[in-house]
């Protein structure tokens, strides 16, 4: 079904490893179950969608002293997707084939309407290196949840999670290029720019951010 070896399939069944995103997608489609249920055992097993409530909205007619409303409910997305929230240490070891969970571990999942191209994850930002000066945008303060998609191309100007060879943890920075040389740049100018030259692996690209109030 997924063109894998019996040994790999046994590891999946024993909980020693988790299939990569492409194989999860294939399995869920063939078995007609939700990707989140298959990968993490969370939520309903059956495929389901959030209904679109926009068609059910009807404006109240004006008359008898009543005023027609000038607002309407926001259109709801057709589907929601949930991705795990992980730390900087786990993000450094994140690949399409290896998902760094201990056997039996159940990661916290955060929902979004974004359908990832790769095996996406949420990263909760620590520190102030991505807090831009007042008035500058974007700014990613501490505590922000950032959705990282490994399937998106890491082009200059994108915000990325990267693993530098001499570090035990991943870092979240802006990827910039100057004269053919690439750098990892913090949005906070108080932090130094990191030159990368074959000593860095881009884990994924930021595609969404949200802050808990």
Automatic annotation (TrEMBL):
The HTH cro/C1-type domain extends over 4-38
Pfam families the UniProt entry points to: Peptidase_S24
**What ranges does the record give for the region Disordered, renumbered to this chain?**
51-76
What the entry lists under SUPFAM superfamilies is as follows: LexA/Signal peptidase (SSF51306)
Q: Which Gene3D superfamilies match?
A: Umud Fragment, subunit A (2.10.109.10)
List all membrane-crossing ranges. none
Q: What is this protein called?
A: XRE family transcriptional regulator
């Amino acid at each position: 079904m997924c063109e894998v070896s019996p040994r790999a399939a046994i590891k999946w069944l024993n909980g020693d490893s988790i299939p990569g995103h492409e194989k999860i997608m294939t399995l869920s489609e063939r078995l007609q179950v939700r990707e989140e249920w298959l990968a993490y055992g969370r939520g309903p097993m059956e495929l389901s969608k959030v209904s679109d409530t926009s068609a059910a909205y009807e404006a109240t007619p004006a008359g008898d002293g009543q005023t027609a409303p000038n607002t309407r409910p926001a259109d709801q997305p057709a589907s929601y997707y949930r991705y795990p929230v992980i730390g900087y240490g786990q993000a450094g070891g994140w690949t399409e084939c290896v998902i760094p969970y201990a056997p039996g571990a159940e990661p916290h999942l955060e929902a979004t309407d974004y359908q990832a191209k790769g095996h996406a994850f949420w990263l909760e930002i620590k520190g102030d290196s991505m807090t831009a000066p007042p008035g500058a945008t974007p700014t990613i303060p501490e505590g922000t949840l950032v959705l990282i998609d490994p399937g998106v191309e890491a082009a200059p100007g994108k915000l990325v999670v990267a693993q530098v060879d001499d570090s035990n943890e991943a870092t979240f920075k802006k990827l910039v290029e100057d004269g053919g040389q690439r750098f990892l740049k913090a949005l906070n100018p108080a932090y130094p720019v990191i030159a990368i030259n074959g000593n860095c692996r881009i884990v994924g690209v930021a595609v969404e951010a949200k802050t808990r109030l």
